[in-house]
Prior knowledge:
- The strands form 3 sheets. A 5-stranded mixed sheet has the order 4-3-5-12-6, sandwiched between helices.
- It has 3 domains: 6-60, Winged helix-like DNA-binding domain superfamily/Winged helix DNA-binding domain (Arc Repressor Mutant, subunit A, Orthogonal Bundle), CATH 1.10.10.10; 108-180 and 286-307, Periplasmic binding protein-like II (D-Maltodextrin-Binding Protein, domain 2, 3-Layer(aba) Sandwich); 183-283, 3-Layer(aba) Sandwich (D-Maltodextrin-Binding Protein, domain 2), CATH 3.40.190.290.
- It is α/β, with parallel strands linked by helices.
- Helix 1 (6-18) crosses helix 2 (21-28) and helix 1 (6-18) packs across helix 3 (32-46).
- 36% of the residues are buried.
- It is 39% helix and 17% strand.
Amino acid sequence: MDTPSLRQLDLFAQMVAAGNLARCANDMGLSAEEIARDLASLEMRLGYRLFEDLEGAARLTPAGRKTAEAMTLLSQDKADDWDRPAPAAVAAAPMPPPAPIAAEPPRRTIMLAAPAPVFGHLQDALAAFEAANEDVAIALDLHVQSAADADAALKRGRADIAYFYALEAPADFPSRYGWSEPVNIYAGADHPFARSQSVSRADLAAAPMLAMERDNAMRAVIEAALAKRKVRSGPVALESDNMAAIMAALRDSVGLFAAFGPLARDLGRMEGIKRIALDMPLPAVEIRQAVRPDAAETPAVEALADFLFL
């Protein structure tokens, strides 16, 4: 999963292991406020909450638990004595054989690959499907972002269902449209563009920008959307996957920032940050669904894929 920063993911793992904010802060030598700020930034990026009552017991939400499993951030204890020889047997009266225990039927695991914010959108439906189908377990792969990612995951058997970002339907493999997320551009409330009734392409070309780091998949989607409308953005004043740094730079009018999805919705509600009024609409980012080529042979996969559209 390349969207959040490695620091944010490490903090999430440490919080899961510590169990509360004060212990995590003590273990990492950081302030509780710094950890809470970075976790809030991570939740904003993902589009859903990871913890219930962060200041108290810091219990994982169902989505947080799924995310921890998907990112394999929790280390598993290993038995220290697996390789030790077994102790010598002690003579004893023979025990009767145990009564046979009926084996539970195996659960069918469906692998869903999707960007983390898309999982946030689908989490209630996924929980409802699991509750109604006790023989089905849903596992997550949060690495898929693009059509190419989804195609590779489905063809290689790493996913049964994949959601991905696109600006239009890919020609290489079948998919269906789920919903769209508009791309918007934001500025600090004191920035001249925030007070302007209309901002043009020429205005944007001269304005410094804030951007996610170069290898961030969401940045590639945003740049493709801008290019589709022939929007040339200005010089990049800050590259960061730390949302706290981006928000501070926005409020200080260091540059403009383009976003879509839950991140854009959160920015639009924040004090000191405004969505600028463009003189042309930007293309929306489509969220599309694809299933593996032989999905028809597995009714549970087809049923889940259809259920997510209800």
